[in-house]
Amino acid sequence: MGTPSRQRRGRGRASSTPMGARDAFASVIGALPERTRVVLLVFAAIAAAFFLRLIFLQVIVADQYSAMAEESRTVSFETSPRRGTIYDRNGIVLATSVEATTIYANPVEVSNAVEEARQLADVLGGEADDYQDLLATPSTTFVYIKRQADVDKAEKVKELDLDGIYFIADMRREYPHGSVGGQVVGFCNADGEGLTGLELQYDDILKGTPGVYVAERGEKGFPIPGGVKEEVAAVDGQDIMISLDIKLQDTVERALEEGVEELETEEGSSIVMDAATGEVYAACSLPYMDPTDMTKSEVGSEHVKAITQPYEPGSTFKSVSAMAILESKAMGPETTMFCPSTISANDYDVSDSHERDGATYSLREILNHSSNVGISLASYNAGFDKLNDAIKRYHLTEATGIDYPGEGSGSVLDFSKWGRITGYNISFGQGISVTPLQMVRFYGAIANDGVMVTPHFLIAKTQSGEVPTYHEETVTEDMEAIEDLRSMLRSVVTNGTGVAADIEGYEVCGKTSTAEIPSEEGGYKQEVYNLGFCGFIDNSSSKLVCFVGANEVYAMRQTTQIFNDIMSNAVKQYNITAAEAKQPATSKE
């Protein structure tokens, strides 16, 4: 009975010890003078603050301060990879990256900014004051003096042995053909980023992966000799081959520029596409863009407007209406109908571009004379639903899917909202917008036996050997209608408005256009037109389709001679051969 009692007392003594210690400590503190107690408490608070600060610095923000310290003693920037080369279809270089040198400075080290600026200007060009401002930049240890400078010029700067001037290997984009093909190829900024054209379209393929350059610097920002702390090599981009033929491109650009000048305007465009493959051999629009000197390029020149800018096509669209009529079997090429001088619908009048008396025309002659009245009545008789079906089936207001940034798509009023005047207008290319490229694709389907292809530029990734494939679609199997339309388009060139487009020994087929231009105030502008011609050489070894347009032309004229100049050169360049020529059918007035 006595032993358990001692154990209970032992537990009681153990549990009372801490309380006793606290009481003893409190007794000691309490016995101290009040002034001493205050000093001790303040010291304890300060010690606790230092302890918490130490934890904060060494645990919570240690990484942040470490990074700040690292930054204060290093200079770092990305290094440019070698951007992939762009080749034309024959392997000619259109865009390439060459070795360059980036020159930078540490203003802290510059002892005489005025003198160094003068010497830099003597070698690199430009104004000495600009270099002086850079060299005297306050509160920094890094400024670019010249990015992507010529290697030779950089070597001359090295020979000057200037204080605080440093160099690093870099790459620079060059365009050997200047403005020729510039709108298609596009251009890059100083960081090697594609901004327009195929440089933008295929930036992910071309650009590669930047490297990293990190160098240590000592007191006052001076570089430490041999102090490259980290250098990650850049990964070069891939090369591509595109369908452009730079020789034909040059021919097209020259012919367009000279032809537009003769038409006394400033804007025009052209496209040459292979209807069998969709490969675009040439494409341009005025004014041209020079990627080697963007300071001289005009606003809007960076795009091929024949691809990006929809417009009302005018009479080149009559071929679409004629095809719908032929497919409906409402009329054949020699079927005739009376065409009054004017017709009216919904309080609007429709007339031809030239005054005439009423006349009986065949469908072929309607196209030859480019009669608005004739194609309107023929489309109405066949049924506007057939025309609407053709517009949809030939994808005439849909983007073609070309691999070029900013493609336009066009538009047309929903068929449920068509009135008779709407149908009339659309039949001759008013009240509908398309791009020249969409018209080229339609004419290409006629030249290619009803098979419509996807226009494109990329034909191969040269290093991997990858060859992309593109969608094609049979949009009509009515070979009779196709042959009839080809025959009628041939008549336009031999007996109609397109005679200047003809090339001796070849069967040129096509259609002219003198399209009115919508006015911002409503209606259409007076006595000013968008001209166009779209055509191809039938029964030949080539299925090249060519569009030529000129914008804002005063008086009714034609672009047929420009087409002739372009395609005559193409005949020689590609040795295009013709089958035995067929005589187009004629009809009696």
UniProtKB/TrEMBL annotation:
GO terms for cellular component: plasma membrane. Gene3D superfamilies: 1.10.150.770, 3.30.450.330, DD-peptidase/beta-lactamase superfamily (3.40.710.10), Penicillin-binding protein 2a (Domain 2) (3.90.1310.10). It comes from the Bacteria. Keywords: Membrane, Transmembrane, Transmembrane helix. Its main location: membrane. GO terms for biological process: cell wall organization. The chain crosses the membrane at residues 38-61. It is found in: Membrane. Residues 79-221 form the Penicillin-binding protein dimerisation domain. Signal peptide: none annotated. InterPro entries: Beta-lactam/transpept, Beta-lactam/transpept-like, PBP_dimer, PBP_dimer_sf, PCN-bd_Tpept. GO terms for molecular function: penicillin binding. Residues 268-567 form the Penicillin-binding protein transpeptidase domain. Pfam families: PBP_dimer, Transpeptidase. Belongs to the transpeptidase family. This is Penicillin-binding protein 2. It comes from Adlercreutzia caecimuris B7.
